[in-house]
Amino acid sequence: MENKDTHETKLPIRSTGTSITKNGTQVAKTTTELPDKFRISDIKCRELIAKATEMLNFSYTPYSHFKVGAALLTKGGKIYGGCNIENAAYGPTNCAERTAFFKAVSEGELEFAAIAIVGGANGKIRDFCPPCGVCRQVMREFCDPESFYVILARSEADYWVYTLEELLPMSFGPENL
């Protein structure tokens, strides 16, 4: 049995009252805490979500109007923000997650713990905003898929946490070369 002090150091997987639905039918209720393998505090998670939300203000999205913000936490505790930056040629467009990673790597950071991601049309967050496949692969280049956490949020109180391995199973990484 878990005591209150221990519970407060663990990250809620989803906010209280949220349920998982499939085709409009509730299939499971969410839990209020993550398994022991998750070692990031609720406070840190909310801090990352707040920074990701702030980054929405810097998105350059004149074509899609879909703004995305990200906040990347290094293992040393530093946070790098990122936003999506569109381009008229589309191909050169850069996602918020990659912007955060490239900023961090360009400043010498190579060890990462977690990333929070938020997004929505015109910067209004209505649902979770999972990373695209390219961003998942960039995360995989720099992160241990079993211990790097991806936080998808609708607000500081409503978020889901996944390991990168859950979002990118059977991944190809540097050790495969």
Nutshell version of this structure?
The protein is α+β, with helices and mostly antiparallel strands and 177 residues long.
Mind explaining what this structure looks like?
The protein is α+β, with helices and mostly antiparallel strands. The chain has one domain: Cytidine Deaminase, domain 2 (3-Layer(aba) Sandwich), CATH 3.40.140. 25% of the residues lie in helices and 26% in strands. The protein contains 5 helices and 7 strands, in the order αββαββαβαββα. A 5-stranded mixed sheet has the order 4-3-5-6-7, with helices on both faces. A two-stranded antiparallel sheet has the order 1-2. α4 links the parallel β5 and β6. Residues 1-36 have low confidence and may be disordered.
Please outline the helices and strands.
Elements: H1 4-8, E1 19-22, E2 25-29, H2 42-55, E3 66-74, E4 79-83, H3 96-106, E5 112-121, H4 133-142, E6 149-155, E7 158-163, H5 164-167
Parallel strand pairs: 5-6
Antiparallel strand pairs: 1-2, 3-4, 3-5, 6-7
